[in-house]
Amino acid sequence: MPTDPIAFVNRPGRQFLFAAGIYFAATLLSLSLATDLISADTTSQPQSAKLEQGSFQLADPNLVIELVAAEPAVQSPVAIAWDAEGRLYVAEMIGYPQEKKQGRIRRLEDLDGDGHYENATVFAEGLHCPTSVMPFEDSVLVTDAPDILRLRDTDNDGIADEQSVEWTGFGTGSEQLRANALHWGLDNWIYGANGRCNGLIRRPHAASDTAVSIRARDFRFDPQHGDFQTLAGQSQFGQSHNRWGDRFLCWNTIPIRQAVIPDLYLAMRPDLTDQSVIDCARPQDTAKVYSISPPPRQFNGERADYYNALGGLTILRDQGLGKEYQGDAFVSESLANTVLRRKLARRGPEFVAQRVEQEQEFLASTDGWFHPVNLTTGPDGALYVVDFYREYVEHPRYVASDAVREGIDWQRGHEHGRIWRIRRNTPERSQATQVSLSEESTQNLVQTLWHENSWWRDTAQRLLIERNDSAAIPVLRRAIAAGGRPEGQLHAMWTLHGLGGLDAETLLLLLGSDHPQLRRGAVRLAAPLLAEERQINRALQKLVADPDPAVRFELALALTANANDQFHDLLTEMAASDYHDPWISRALLRSDRVLPLLRQLATKSAWQGKLTTAQREFLLQAGESLGRQANPESLARLLDFLADAREHVDNQESFEIVLLAGIAQAFAKRGLSLKSWIGNYKLAIRQSFAAAIREAAQTIGQASWSLPLQVATIQLLASGPADLVAQPLEKVLRLTHREPVREAAARALADLDALDASRRLYTDWPRLPTSLRRKILLAAARSPASRSALLEALRQGTVLPMELPITVEKELRDTGSAVQRQQFVAILGGQQQTDRNKTVADFLDVADMTGDVTRGAAHFKQHCLACHTLLSTGKQVGPDLSGAGRRSKKELLVDILNPSGQVSPDYLAYTATTHTGKVLTGLIVAETDSSLTLHGADGKSVTLAHREIEELHPTRRSLMPDGIEEKLGRQGLADLIAFLRNPHRALLE
User: Is the pTM above the cut of 0.90?
Assistant: First the structure.
């Protein structure tokens, strides 16, 4: 099955700009299908705001939902923000799903303080596709790709009369997928979400060679100094920070992700980039959504009962819903007409998202026109919901049928739009919409930093930074010293930093605070002063034993990001006590400092004798950190150290094996051969390495070893001689029931490039379980010997051509020697048809056939599960296919047979050719200034340094190969479609 840009899941159309699923639109549908769709139910009608309000169901009876504004005051709203005077700015995408320059910014005012915004002005119009708005200085900033605009009302008549471009170069692909989510950060930067259209960003009059690529990354810019930076991780629609400055992202099928490692450190520690963003969901979260609205009118068949159209993420940063809601994450599911809630529980530096409501959602509506697209905390502490309220949020570009596309009024209801407020059901209501901060004194603004509501704190901080008034510095210092609400001290600290007034005395005070988040923030700001301020250094030394792991994690990052070696003893001390913490371990293991750290650890009594599980995990990380360098000199020094330590350190064998396993794992991720590197070293090193291989071959089956260590050790064995490691690998392959171990063993056996070892895999083929056969076949194209063994098995009839996963068959046709390719073609049949439309036409009758769900599940396991997840099972190479169930049979058929019919630009597969001649193909899932990561069809990621790449170009095709119809036949296709439309998780286990 295809990778992320697959044809049959998560259509972006109905999910709108903020939650689009990416895969390919179909290119051929019959006229009868178009007629069926056009004649579908058209009785759906808009409801008045009052009737819509009655359709809402809140899970908590102590909450109420109230109307803030409705048409004609707002139309097709997608984002909101308040200025310092409490005026509400609304980004309206009236022209969606086409630009037509109908985008507008409205300004709403609540003149009587009753919570309803009765006065509306068109602040700006004629915009392309405004996706977010943010007040700044005497103007508002708007994301309107390709630009970020500054709109200013110079004559105070409520209408912008000046428009300028602050930044340009943002991608203008689908209106659903453009840059968005501008908001003020605690660190005085303005943050934004990529959206998925990427771009090369520069100042409007700057030279093109100054442009910064945001491919697969979010961004931020410094409004004071004009700096623009990319950020690890990519949000689709919506991005948010909590009250302590942690950044959270969302995706259409992933409600909450966290950027755990601040980009401040990633700039100096690029080795951590691929580990910096995590999915916050607990394993128990099955991605099910509990909608109460009727199924939406069908075009592309999204499934509304699983994550599909998530967006508009916000972290509630006030107690307007009650203390128990503060810090919770809220995200919209626009297709399912619901708002989801997750409680964020801190676990060291990371957060875990926990479902609170059981078998229901925080907010749901029976009105199918209710499309929540954005959420935010208001000045009154309530949760505000932006309701796009119209019939369709689908984009016609993703509808396969021309007749349907042209026969639907996609803008139906564009004149509607609502904004709602959710608050605690108490007799009194906050009058906080009555705001007037612009003219407040510096003293009062500083006091406002201690406000209980985050909006007031953010706005006061922004105003103080905008004024750039040095008179605020002593006021801020005194306020911090006075203590009080820790959030206030944190805002004051960052405000001082922005004004250039953060002194050592204030930092020392905060480093000694009773509140861990103040200590953590102070460490971050103290990092540039390391090695310059002795008092700061002494204060940081005390934090090595800080009771809060998040503080120690921040300290480890700060110390390793600093180039000064004077902190080596501190790092060793932290490693000796915190090796069991995976995040602190990552921070400590800076590649150029790992070896000195290991030298000292190896001599400590706690590291003599039998190693604990936590110690082995630390050494595994240490080896991987060293291996990421792929540096001959550093690797030679490590191997020298291990050869010497073998004679002086008790139980050095385990110490050595785990470290080498980590190196092997890093090499495997980069597509490098550790075996070829070892062959270039001196005899003593080669002998030491051979001894480690022998030891690893004897211990690989230890059940006490963790899953990651077993996999890494298997990768190490792939660097050994076949006569020594083949049998242990075969034993592991056949006896283990742990799928990742099986997969690693199959790949390692193939990488040995030993014909006899590969042949033995097929000797008892009929008796092997199908899951094991699949692992062997998925690795069969990796080396000449493994291809030859498979070729023999196919000729002898041991393996049937129909057993081959389609991705493997494509590799066999396209890789290896010319002779081998011809031999496989002779057995497997001629090249696939290039005219996929003709193939689709030939197979259209399959849509009328009855399929078997059980047989379809078997096909899915064989051909799709290696690249896709479905109902939380499988691999996330491509999108989650849980949403395929509502697509018609014909749509699914077209998309399966012609996966490259229409490739989404942001999900093209790329081919990278290295200077050594290695060719790798995959999706670019991450990119920094120094490297990029390709995710291949085999489910594996490879990270390449830009300096290694000779050529990089898009393939213009899906990673899903053509020709699945030859594998499955008509009935097999019907079975697969039946399973996709009615999946059962139990059939995949």
Answer: no
